[in-house]
Structure formats: structure tokens, C-alpha cells
Amino acid sequence: MADAITEATAKLLLDEETGEMVSKNELAKRTKKRAKKALTAKNKENAPPKPAAAAPKPKERADEPSLDPEAMFKQGFLADVHAERPVKPVVTRFPPEPNGFLHIGHAKAIAVNFGFAKYHGGECYLRYDDTNPEAEEEKYFVAIEQMVRWLGFSPYKITYSSDNFQRLYDLAEKLIELGRAYVCHCNDEQIKAQRGGENHGPRFRCEHAEKDVETNLSEFRGMRDGKYKPREAFLRMKMDITDGNPQMWDLAAYRVLEKPHHRTGDAWRIYPTYDFTHCLCDSFEGITHSLCTTEFVQSRVSYEWLNKQLVEHQPMQREYGRLSIQGTVLSKRKIMKLVQEGYVRAWDDPRLYTLIAIKRRGVPPGAILEFVNELGITTAPTMIQLARFDQTIRRYLERTVPRLMLVLDPIPVVIEGAEEVEVDVPFNPKIAAMGSHKIKFTPTVYIDRSDFREVDSKDYFRLAPNKTVGLLQAPYPIKAVSYSKDEATGKVTEIRAVFDKETKKPKTFIHWAAAGSRKVEVRLFNSLFKSEKPDDAEGGFLNDINPESEIVYPDALIESGFDEVKARAPWPEAAGESELGKGGPESVRFQGMRVAYFAVDSDSTDDKIVLNKIVSLKEDAGKSQG
Ligand code: ATP
Ligand code: MG
Description:
Blueprint: H1 2-10, E1 13-15, E2 20-22, H2 24-44, H3 71-74, H4 77-84, E3 91-94, H5 104-119, E4 123-128, H6 138-150, E5 158-160, H7 165-177, E6 181-184, H8 188-194, H9 213-224, E7 234-237, E8 252-256, E9 270-272, H10 274-284, E10 289-293, H11 299-310, E11 316-320, E12 323-326, H12 332-340, H13 355-361, H14 365-375, E13 382-385, H15 386-398, E14 403-404, E15 406-407, E16 410-416, E17 421-426, E18 436-441, E19 444-448, E20 468-471, E21 478-485, E22 492-499, E23 509-510, E24 513-514, E25 518-525, E26 550-558, H16 562-567, H17 575-579, E27 589-592, E28 596-600, E29 610-616, H18 621-625
The structure holds adenosine-5'-triphosphate and magnesium ion.
């Protein structure tokens, strides 16, 4: 009998409007009724009727993505870039500054650089662009590499711009010898004046540009040897101030910074700039396609100019649009503020969009890559709403994780005359390969407080006095006969019910947990900010904080299938997580039926499991349910 039950309930579908599990027929009926109602409402407004329901989506296989996972390399920007220089092997680099944690935008850069090389059978370097000793810290180096590997990529080599300090220095002397660089002693104001403009007249060079090679060499060595304080001297490239592009107006190549460096210690007191370092390091590493974001479009000229002066191998720089997410903040300074003022618990708080936070929340790395792939790569900046990211995660989880029953706010239902039975439940009715597990159905079960109403109504289909509801996978539907309440709080404390063997097909099924189920803490997340544009809030983004961004259920109950789901993690068996070993707690992922998708939080201990909501089951469930 249990098998027949399983088969019937396996076919149930989620009614997104009510959060109920219902049969296909029932769902069709409800949809039709709602469409009719919507139409009448529209007609009342005298608006022309619109097609009521959206066209049915083409059938997809539950366990397959809807888009070619390599689409981003086959069309658009990356296809063009490869067509322009179809060399073999392709060599790229991902060059983060180790001055903060990576965020969702960096995931795009990782997918672009590592993915492009991988797609073409080439290699990608992870290069720490560590030329600014002031902001670098060990923890960032470690976290950056971990995130790259978590996303499923293996750097060909891990390099540091600072490894090239001597080589870069020698090339700077060479540039001076070529008459293409000079030591300048101007201050900011003077430099600004030299750039010309409306109130400054035409562009011009300062007198320092006229010094001979010997003088420049000796002053540059003086910079190196500590003869100058910061800002007293800097090395400038002698470019082309008649060019319309400001990136050709004698950019800085080296500056004095009396700071020890994370890797080179006190060896240097001068450090090369980004403009001097990046293109040369690209050349040293044999980069074929140097892919960066569009803020660097203007820099392409200086990038090519410097490489032509000094080195043989000429990489090709091309620029793609940045990825920005609406409804959150990504800047280091702002996240720091959120952490320091206690709005979030840390840099990896699941409500943030740093990669460590997204990971902790339980978003699988594959879903992030799918998201980037779906957006496609173009030269236009991409501004995306959080809901769009959620949508991709939801679809990804739908086809990759098992399902379990999780009751957030349990109330006991005592079913008179019921006996304990064992039922066999599929981990995912749509994916037979996930197998099944046995759970106990006990005479007392726990249902969610929100699935019981003291006062019944016509359009309500869950449990109420004298009303029948199906319990997922249970032998029979149940009918409530009475309930008790706590006088002081007014809260229902227990429901008494009986099996309703007459009702063969209940309208609705709800989830439950057996007596003896494990107690867990569940953290439901909503957007950290109230608006799409927290930065536009009066008085700043802190005034836009959503007071209900985290709702905790301390006494939730999880069914016993959880133990097997935990033992079999990671879900899914993503490349990146496997490479890191077994995967962290966040790789224990499942759908809490009718509730949301969940993952185990890193705050969990052997005795206490904490679950994070990854994403809701439908678009705005977060708003209504918390
Ligand atoms: P932020 O200021 O947001 O920390 P950044 O540009 O200073 O970003 P880097 O560490 O220099 O960060 O970035 C490493 C690489 O990641 C660069 O190639 C950069 O262009 C790319 N990148 C950074 N942010 C984004 C984004 N939002 N979308 C796409 N690529 C990005
Ligand atoms: Mg930067």
C-alpha cells in the first residue's frame, strides 16, 4: 500500500499561489478559475482582455539545464574575441587585487577568464595583482584562491605581480634609456594644470620631461635608494600628450611608497603602478587574450603602447561589461560598515553577495556559472535584479537536489487509532536516479502552524476542524476533530485528528514530520535591503536595511531522510566542491517541500544543525512567508 501512496503523492505539483501540493487536475482547475477571475476583474476595469495564461513552457528534462552550458563561449563577445585572434593555446589570467573578498561580479570575471581558456583547451593563471602594499592581507590571498577552486577551476599557475618587481624595474630603466620615461617632481595641482582643459588652456609638459637620460636614470635610482619621500618624485612615461585619450598623457609608472610589502618585505620603497605593471606581466606570462572590464577601454592604448616599447610578446586586451546586482551593496567599505555595526554577522553572512557569503548560504557553484552563462558576455554593463539570480539558483536546485520534509513551526497532530508504519519516499520524484529512503509515519505527527486554521473558509484547503487534508506520503488523509490552545498565548498547542478513509483524493497535501524527528534551527533570509537601490536611500544605505532580513525558527523539525542526504553530500556533485574534498556543510542541500531550498550552515555543530534558506520555491514567497 505504501508504494501506491508514494506513486500518487510523487505526482503532486506545487500550487505556487497557495504553497499547497495538489494533483495535476486540481492545479489545472485552480489555474482556470483564477484566469477567469482575473479576466472578469480586467473587464470590470474596461481594459481589453489579455490572454489569460502564459503559453505552456516546452517540456524540459528535469535534470538538464535549458541552455547550452558553453553558450557564452560560442556566441557574443568571447566568440568575437577568439575569432579575432584564433591562436593555440589560449592563455588568460584572472588578476585580482588581494585587497578584499571577491564578490558576485568577480565570479563573472572568473567564469570569463578561466572558462574561456578551458573551453579552448588553454590555460589560465591566477595572478595576484599585488603592487599596492598598503591594502594587502594574507587572508585575502587565501580566500581568493579558494573561491576560484570552489567555482571549479584550477589555476595553471599562481603568480604574483610582485614576483616581477626586479624585471619590471629593469624595464623601467630601459624605458628611460629609450628616452620614453622621466622622473617628475610635480605636485597634483601642477599635474592637473598640465592636462589642460577649459580653465587651464592647452596641454603641456613640465620642465622635468626635458632632462637627459643620465639625469633621469640617476634620479630614478635615487627614488629606489630612498633619496625621495613619497610624492617628492615619481617616474612618468613619456607618451603622446597630443593624443585625445588621457591615458596617453604621460602616466605614472613608479611611485615612492615607504611601506613594507607582503611578499618582498623592505626590499623596495618604490612600487610600479597598475598601468606599468599589468600589460608587462601579461606579456611575461604569454597571455594571448587579456580580458578585462570596460573601465579599461581607454587604457587599451597605453597597454599596447608600453608593451610595444619594451617587450616581444603582445597580448590582446579586450573589454567586456561589468556585472552589477541591484538591491545590494558590493563595495568593501560598505560591507565593512554592515559588519562593524552588526547588521550582518560577518563578511560571509548569507545575506551578502560576497562569494564566501553566497557559498555559505548554499548556492552551488554550478548555479553561479549557469547564471553568468545565461546572462551572456557582451560589452554592455549588466545590471541585474536579485530576483533574476534567485531564479537561476532555483532552477538549478530543482534538478539537482533531493527533497525532504521540514516543519518550521511544528504543532503536534495526534491521529486517533493510527499505527506506526514505514513508508518509502523518493528523494526526488522527478529524478528516479536519486533513489528513495524509508521514513516512519507515527500516530503523532507534526505539521506547520500555518497549515492549520481554527476557523475554516471556502477557499481554504488545508487543515481545520472537520476538514480533511492529505499528508504527503502518509497512508490516509486526516480530518481534524478538535484542538487545544494555550490560554495565555492563544496559540494552538495540539490538534486531534482521525484518518479519513472515505476521501480518496484530498484536494491538498501538506508536509509533516514524524514523532522523534531531529530538531534544527532554520534561518530564513529575505533581502537585506528594502529597496532596489539602497544607495539612493535618504541618509544612505544603512537607512534602507530590512528589519526582517533574517527570521529564525529555533525549533523546526527535519525528517529522518536528512541523515542520508547529509552522508551523500555534496549535492550536486559539482566539480569545484569535489576538488576541495568532500565539500563544506553548505554542500548538504535539499528542497524542504513546500517551504524553500536549504543548506547546512557553518554554525552547525555535532549536536545542533543550523539550516540556511538558499532561495524560496517561487518568486516572492520570501515576502509573504518570511
Ligand atoms: P572591486 O572594486 O569591486 O573590488 P576591482 O575591479 O577592484 O573590483 P579586482 O580585484 O581588481 O577588483 O578585480 C579582478 C578582476 O575582476 C578584474 O579583471 C576586474 O575587471 C574583474 N571584476 C571586478 N568586478 C567585476 C564585476 N562587477 N564584473 C565583472 N568583472 C569584475
Ligand atoms: Mg581594483
